[in-house]
Design brief:
Layout lengths: L4 E4 L2 E4 L4 H10 L5 E5 L6 H16 L3 E6 L17 E2 H14 L2 E5 L11 H9 L4 E5 L10 E4 L6 H11 L8 H14 L10 H12 L4 H9 L4 H12 L2 E3 L4 E6 L1 H6 L10 H6 L6 E8 L4 E8 L5 H8 L3 E2 L3 E6 L3 H12 L3 H5 L2
Parallel strand pairs: 2-8, 3-4, 3-6, 4-5, 6-7, 7-8, 10-11
Antiparallel strand pairs: 1-2, 9-10, 11-12, 12-14, 13-14
Helix pairs in contact: 2-5, 2-6, 5-6, 6-7, 6-8
Length: 358
């Protein structure tokens, strides 16, 4: 395979797995090991799908593998095969601490920095100090160098697709079954916006075809993800769209949701998934954001989306303590909802030419 990597001390980061790294991972897994597979805070379909798929594969290889997350995953992902076995640090911290005390290898998936894992950050940093080997698989920009081996490809559609290529490269495809294929397919489907985002390539479609042949049922997965709504969620969407503001002079739009509005519609984790895309779908809008108040954490959660070459990754990094991809990113603000929106409008002037192509 092609080799493309840069060294960080005795560690390697690579976009194409090479024979040396493959041999290194095979050596780490040559006998049954105790493995944890870690996803990021507020896990989405890609984090859940990629982690479950890898853990299931490792179990078939004879390893004792567990998926752990900083906090719970949303209801619309709880149908996924094996999701009921995921441990969440917020409620299962004693069981997770016991696993980490004996772990041999740690896989971290779908995040580029330990700052993305909430309460799990400190326990994992202690494992690094003990020189427990870490393997990172991720497609976000600027990965940290904590892992012994880092498989990073920012051009890849999803971490789930990277897990498929990882399994393929490690010569484990014979272990693929319907459950593993369904988990990977879910990760790809959610992170490509049902195959409509720019990160969807011909290879992505080829992988999807292989997953369908392995037993993933596309219509059933899509139905579970997108076509099963509660009455409260639809009414919350109505409120969100009622709060929609279009800034025509900037080709931008935003949505706000206060804590009171969330409470009035019995908000559940994941209920606002995809809301920001309604704002982005407006004709001539190149930038869309949704600002969601979280009174418990005393923050405003922000999802950013864009069309074309405008980088919401840079916008989130520079102004909202976040980051992600060029066309999809997340951030947060410790200001009030009103002050956060006012700040956004203030900085928007700096991006007017880029957004309007003036």
């Amino acid at each position: 395979m092609l080799i493309h990597y840069a060294k960080f001390s005795n560690k390697c980061i690579f976009a194409f797995m090479n024979k040396i790294q493959i041999q290194q991972i095979h050596s780490l897994l040559d006998t049954p090991k105790k493995v944890v597979v870690v996803g990021h805070q507020n896990p989405d379909g890609d984090a859940i799908g990629s982690c479950l798929a890898l853990a299931k594969t490792l179990k078939k290889l004879g390893h004792n593998a567990h998926v752990i997350m900083p906090n719970a995953h949303p209801k619309f992902l709880q149908w996924m095969p094996g999701s009921d076995e995921i441990l969440h640090y917020e409620k299962d911290h004693k069981e997770i601490d016991a696993l980490l005390a004996e772990v041999d290898i740690v896989f971290t998936l779908d995040f580029n920095s330990l700052s993305r894992i909430g309460g799990l950050q400190q326990p994992l940093e202690k494992l690094i100090e003990k020189e427990i080997p870490f393997i990172m698989i991720d497609h976000h920009q600027s990965p940290d160098d904590y892992a012994l081996v880092t498989y990073s490809d920012t051009e890849m559609s999803s971490t789930a697709q990277m897990v498929y290529h990882f399994i393929e490269t490690m010569d484990w495809l014979s272990l693929m079954d319907a459950d593993i294929a369904s988990c990977i397919y879910t990760g790809i489907l959610t992170d490509t916006g049902s195959f409509k985002y720019r990160n969807t390539t011909a290879t992505t479609h080829r992988v999807a075809a292989e997953l369908l042949e392995a037993g993933a049922v596309n219509w059933n997965i899509s139905n579970n993800l997108f076509d099963t709504n509660s009455e409260d969620r639809l009414k919350l969407l109505s409120t969100a769209l009622g709060n929609l503001v279009v800034l025509k002079d900037y080709n931008a739009a935003y949505i706000t949701l206060s804590q009171a509005e969330l409470d009035a519609h019995h908000f559940q984790k994941g209920d606002t998934e995809g809301f920001v895309n309604y704002a982005l779908s407006i004709e001539n809008v190149n930038l869309a954001l949704i600002f969601i108040e979280n009174a418990n954490e005393k923050i405003i959660k922000i999802s950013l989306r864009s069309k074309g070459d405008f980088s919401v990754n840079e916008l989130a990094r520079d102004h909202f303590n976040g980051g992600g991809h060029n066309n999809a990113a997340g951030g947060r603000s410790t200001m009030s909802l009103e002050d956060t929106v006012a700040y956004f409008k203030k900085i928007l002037e700096d991006y007017k030419k880029e957004l309007t192509n003036e």
